[in-house]
Amino acid sequence: MEALYGTGVALITPFNADFTIDVEALKQVVEHCIAGGVDYLVVLGTTGESVTLAKSEKQLVIKTVIEQNSGRLPLVLGVGGNNTFQLVDELKSTNLEPFKAVLSVSPYYNKPTQEGIYRHYKMLAEASAIPIILYNVPSRTGSNVLPETVLRLAELPNIVAVKEASGNMEQVNKIIGKKPEDFMVISGDDITALETVLSGGSGVISVIAQGLPSEFSKMIRLGLEHVEDEAFAMHEEMKEGMELIFKEGNPAGIKAMMAAQGLCNPEVRLPLVPATRELTAQIAGFMKSFKTIQA
């Protein structure tokens, strides 16, 4: 799975003012990421507000990204939820040929036991024609996929990686220290992404990397090459932006950052609301000062 090393981007889904999908803005975002040197794109992840999209809208997003990407970067498809059997049907009925892997968030709200999480992913792995990436984000799901469960799942042939977004480096390091050699640990937390890479992780699936694609992907490359001083310097320059875009939730913050660059509108779908005027101004101020530093 060498295609999944480095910086992946959890793409937003841009909306028009009437909350329909802004296809032209989505094309711009894809182009912005590719031009910035990211390594792969994740379509319809949680940052893409996939839970608020109708089936036809999801198909439109997939079609738009595939066509705009035109084979230039590897693609990963988000297929996640808390209804295991429904996800199995979705995996079996979806054309997965354009994608390198499926990213599947751990079941939310149900709060399954570790055994339930294991059996859920085992069933998805058996149903999927392409590899599965586990996605652990306990702040959103209400349950933590423990290292022991990740390591148990890592032994299954069609599960190739975990996107670890717990932000708990002790947990991340435990997985890295005991995982099979070919199993990948991918950071799902922008703030700890560099630390994860330096500890032996394979890269990141990032939110801010679509706002600062060239800078963030360069930092991750430096981390993978263990050019630590320069990588940490870049991390410090971007740290305020990483904190700001999550201050009022994701993807409201990153959409405000993208809007500040004229790439899309800041609209999100209810129950989410756009970033407040105060946060929008803070993000715009960060972008102005950051670009000045880079210049």
From TrEMBL:
Name the Enzyme Commission number(s) assigned to this protein. 4.3.3.7
A Pfam family (short name) is: DHDPS
Q: Which InterPro entries match?
A: Aldolase_TIM (IPR013785), DapA (IPR005263), DapA-like (IPR002220), Schiff_base-form_aldolases_AS (IPR020625)
Residues annotated as binding pyruvate are T47, I205
Q: Which keywords annotate this record?
A: Amino-acid biosynthesis, Cytoplasm, Diaminopimelate biosynthesis, Lyase, Lysine biosynthesis, Schiff base
Which GO BP terms, alphabetically? diaminopimelate biosynthetic process; lysine biosynthetic process via diaminopimelate
Quick check: keyword NADP in the entry?
Answer: no
So which domain of life are we looking at?
A: Bacteria
Q: Which catalytic residues are annotated?
A: Y135 (proton donor/acceptor), K163 (schiff-base intermediate with substrate)
Under the cellular component aspect of Gene Ontology, which terms does the record hold? cytosol
Q: State which pathway it belongs to.
A: Amino-acid biosynthesis; L-lysine biosynthesis via DAP pathway; (S)-tetrahydrodipicolinate from L-aspartate: step 3/4
Q: GO MF annotations for this entry?
A: 4-hydroxy-tetrahydrodipicolinate synthase activity
**Principal EC category:** lyase
Q: Where is this site: Part of a proton relay during catalysis?
A: T46, Y109
Protein localization: Cytoplasm
Q: Which SUPFAM superfamilies match?
A: Aldolase
Which parts of the chain are coiled coil?
none
Give the reactions, separated by semicolons, that this protein catalyses. Answer: L-aspartate 4-semialdehyde + pyruvate = (2S,4S)-4-hydroxy-2,3,4,5-tetrahydrodipicolinate + H2O + H(+)
Q: Which family does it belong to?
A: Belongs to the DapA family.
**What is the protein's known function?**
Catalyzes the condensation of (S)-aspartate-beta-semialdehyde [(S)-ASA] and pyruvate to 4-hydroxy-tetrahydrodipicolinate (HTPA).
Query: Tell me, how does this one assemble?
Result: Homotetramer; dimer of dimers.
| Family matches, as HAMAP family | DapA
What is the name of the protein in this document? Answer: 4-hydroxy-tetrahydrodipicolinate synthase
**Which source organism does the UniProt entry give?**
Zeaxanthinibacter enoshimensis
